[in-house]
Write a structure and sequence with these properties.
This protein is of the alpha+beta class. About 55% of the residues lie in helices and about 15% in strands. The strands form 6 sheets. Strands 2, 3, 4, 5, 6 and 7 form a 6-stranded antiparallel β-sheet that branches. Strands 15-14-13-18-17-16 form a 6-stranded antiparallel β-sheet. The radius of gyration is 47 Å and the shape is elongated.
């Protein structure tokens, strides 16, 4: 017995075993740790600036992330990049305690000693002592946290779109790494306790790995490279490990200050080199791809164009981001340009890469998380522009110390973008305005599902009107249907709010429409038989229901409940709705007819059995009843009256021959043997017997080689239908001539039986059917069961023509 194949691992199990998922979890936890490290500074005294320390040396530098409107930058005129040596003559590694002592002594200023790289002088200035507030926290951390959320969200979006794809995994890994770096970038005021040092070490070991991650991504995008570049990526990874180790040595207590300074320089320049190498690798791959732009496929061209646009927008900021680590002419480059934070422009790069990887590589639509990332980026950029305009309108800024309104602008922009994004989605408040096609398609699908569930032909009209009103948000709808036997359209169902009585019937007096919607609310071009619907009923559009037999009904609808009139752009949807309704009505009618078919066939079979029983009773049974009498009398008279015996036996032989002929005819009618040789000879024999029996002149027209287009099954069906038609002529027509035509064309075998008899009106046919005559119904049922069609043309006093077709065969 073979063993069953092991079940495929579930998605949750696969994710639990994926190291990249655990890396995502680790980066999220470390990011929260960095936020906590900065949040615990709220309420602590500081000098109105941010600082950082490159090594274990007891000095610091004013961080380039310090907002220019903070008090330390305005009142003390500190600048980004100056080296901080001491606070109140205490080494800078003891700065926290110095500020705490000053705050405890209620001093408003402390004396900060620093080295100015621009003048190469050591100076001292009074720096205000201020509590670090929640507003300071948002000033310092909000930009990096927004970027961390965007990068982290994009990492998840790209990973989830194709978890096993190498390029998606490479992008998700480096993007998550950047998110972690941004979340930890400014995490403390004073780097002087175990938690802050641990977070700083994590940050310094991760920064050089960003460059390695960029090179790894470049090795897979836009297409994988050969083994040599991959070896270079491994070399870069090894170099990243060395640079990260140098950061640890520089930060911890090194054996000597010279070793610490050397390790710090290795970390500093190594990080810059790896970062620049990663950027150049990505840009170089795209440049090489651009050189072959004409030879790329259209999708690859679009991918390249989108990525290059995002890179071109962000390239200046990418350069500035690298230069923030460089001191030029004694000053450190800042992210702020007249109050505008350039870092938000940087988000164009990951957004464009994420979009092309999800849309053109994973072939999926962007997820809601991607839209949230766009909303965060857009809101931050709008808020930064608003803050820059605010700063431009204040000539005294930043010297006046006013805080730009970035946070309220960001919150307002984010809420507005989320609300607006929801409102303009295809399901939102303005979805009909911005996504009319998708909204209409969704309503049409819902309508189709709704009426598909209703299979009862009697209840289907009500389901159609209710579905139209509820799924398409219409005020009202009504449907008129043509009965099986009749010309007028009768009101079948209505839904919605009607203020006037609807006409119970509509009498089409013009050729059947083509199925296109008709505007009831516009008099021009409206057929006269539809004018009763334009008399204040609140109906705007009529939808003719067209089937193979022509017009089978009409659906009339009013406007949407939120619009005064029916919009012209909805006419195509209305036409599709009419086609759906006609299709389902026709299908339901066919199903109902098929459900009645077994009963009709049973009636036909019962009548045929009764006819055969009657025929046997009138012929064979009568003969068999007389035969014993003849034989008995002949036996008794054989000796005394031989002549009489001879006459009796002659009569018995004659009756036997007659009974045998009757039995042969019955057997032939049940299973004509000529059908085995072909349809044409069997029908010819049938016509000959019919003419000989009835005296009605019968002509037969058969297309040459007809039997090449017939099968045993359709021969039998056509023979029985023609036989039934001739029986009807004999029984009801009072005809003097009848013609039978057989032909084949377009894959169909057709027949026609026409007589010159009295014909039958619609009322006469209905009365005959009510009286139990199912001849025409039997013919229709036989043909439709074989995949064909049946038709009838007749009127009182003008003869009758029946015909139809069946699919041909080889």
């Amino acid at each position: 017995m073979s063993e069953a194949a092991p079940a495929a691992p579930s998605s949750a199990h696969r994710y639990r075993r994926d190291p990249l998922v655990w890396f995502f979890v680790l980066t999220a936890a470390l990011a929260l740790l960095g936020v906590y490290d900065m949040a615990r500074e709220v309420g602590q005294p500081f000098g109105g600036y941010l600082s950082y320390r490159r090594s274990a040396a007891p000095v610091g530098e004013v961080d380039a992330n310090t907002p220019s409107w903070w008090s330390g930058m305005i009142r003390s005129r500190l600048r980004h990049g100056i080296t901080l040596l001491a606070v109140d003559r205490r080494r800078y590694d003891d700065a926290r305690d110095a500020f705490r002592d000053a705050a405890a002594a209620r001093r408003q200023f402390v004396n900060v000693t620093f080295h100015d790289p621009a003048t190469h002088q050591i100076m001292s200035r009074a720096v205000p002592v201020r509590p670090f507030t929640l507003a300071h926290f948002f000033d310092a951390r909000l930009p990096d946290l927004i970027m961390a959320l965007v990068f982290g969200g994009l990492a998840l979006v790209v990973y989830l779109s194709a978890p096993t794809n190498a390029v998606n995994r490479a992008f998700a890994g480096v993007t998550a790494l950047v998110a972690l770096v941004r979340a930890l970038f400014v995490h403390t005021l004073f780097l002087d306790d175990t938690l802050s040092v641990a977070v700083e070490l994590i940050l310094l070991t991760m920064i050089p790995m960003v460059g390695v991650g960029l090179m790894h991504f470049a090795a897979h995008f836009p297409y994988p490279v050969g083994p040599t570049p991959r070896r270079l990526v491994r070399v870069a990874a090894a170099a990243g490990v060395v640079v990260a180790a140098a950061a640890v040595v520089a930060r911890l207590d090194a054996p000597s200050q010279e070793t610490a300074r050397l390790a710090a320089r290795i970390n500093y320049y190594g990080t810059l080199i790896l970062y620049a190498a990663g950027l150049l690798a990505v840009i170089g791959r795209l440049t090489l791809r651009l050189a072959h732009f004409r030879h790329l496929r259209p999708r690859e061209r679009r991918v390249l164009a989108i990525v290059l646009i995002g890179l071109a927008i962000s390239l200046p900021v990418l350069i500035i981001s690298a230069l923030t680590w460089v001191v030029i002419d004694g000053q450190q480059i800042s992210y702020y340009v007249r109050g505008f934070d350039l870092r938000y422009v940087l988000l164009a790069v990951p957004l464009t890469f994420a979009y092309v990887l999800v849309r053109y590589r994973a072939l999926r639509s962007p997820s809601p998380l991607f839209l949230v990332a766009i909303a965060l980026s857009f809101s931050a950029l709008v808020a930064a522009l608003g803050a820059a305009l605010w700063a431009t309108s204040r000539p005294a800024w930043p010297q006046d110390g006013a805080r730009p309104p970035f946070l309220p602008l960001f919150i307002a922009a984010l809420l507005s973008s989320l609300v607006w994004g929801r409102a303009v989605s295809w399901r939102g408040m303005f979805g009909r305005l911005f996504h009319p096609d998708r909204r209409a398609a969704a309503a049409t699908r819902a309508f189709g599902r709704r009426i598909t569930a209703q299979r009862d032909l009697k209840l289907l009209p009500e389901a159609i009107t209710r579905g139209v009103v509820e799924e398409f948000d219409l005020e009202r709808a009504a449907i008129w249907l043509r009965p099986a036997e009749g010309e007028a359209l009768e009101l079948a169902a209505r839904a919605g709010d009607f203020t006037a009585e609807l006409p119970l019937g509509l009498w089409p007096d013009s050729p059947d429409p083509d199925g296109a919607p008709l505007r009831i609310d516009r008099a021009e071009g409206l057929p006269g038989w539809l004018r009763p619907l334009a008399t204040g009923l609140g109906l705007d559009v009529a939808l003719p229901l067209i089937a193979d037999d022509g017009l089978i009904g009409l659906v009339a609808v009013g406007p949407r409940w939120d619009e005064e009139i029916f919009d012209d752009r909805d006419l195509e949807t209305a036409e599709l709705l009419g086609q759906q309704a006609a299709l389902f009505l026709t299908a339901a009618a066919s199903v109902a007819e098929l459900r009645r078919l077994p009963g009709r066939m049973a009636d036909v079979q019962d009548r045929e059995r009764q006819r055969l029983a009657q025929e046997l009773h009138d012929t064979t049974q009568q003969f068999l009843g007389r035969l014993p009498f003849y034989l008995t009398v002949g036996r008794d008279a054989a000796a005394t009256q031989p002549e009489m015996t001879r006459d009796i036996l002659d009569q018995a032989i004659s009756d036997v021959e007659e009974a045998a002929a009757v039995l042969r005819q019955i057997r032939y009618n049940l299973a004509p043997s000529q059908l085995e040789r072909g349809l044409a000879p069997a029908v010819a024999a049938l016509c000959d017997r019919f003419q000989g029996r009835t005296g009605i002149r019968t002509t037969l027209s058969v297309m040459p080689a007809l039997d090449e287009h017939t099968t045993q099954e359709n021969r039998h069906t056509l023979y029985r239908v023609i036989q039934q038609a001739l029986d009807n002529v004999e029984a009801h027509a009072g005809a003097t001539a009848v013609s039978v035509d057989l032909a084949a064309a377009n894959g169909r075998v057709t027949f026609r039986v026409r007589d010159d008899g009295r014909g039958a009106s619609e009322a006469q046919r209905q009365a005959a059917q009510a009286a139990g005559s199912f001849g025409l119904a039997s013919m229709r049922a036989r043909l439709e069961a074989g995949g064909g069609e049946f038709y009838l043309q007749t009127d009182a006093g003008q003869g009758m023509e029946v015909g139809g077709w069946l699919p041909g065969g080889l």
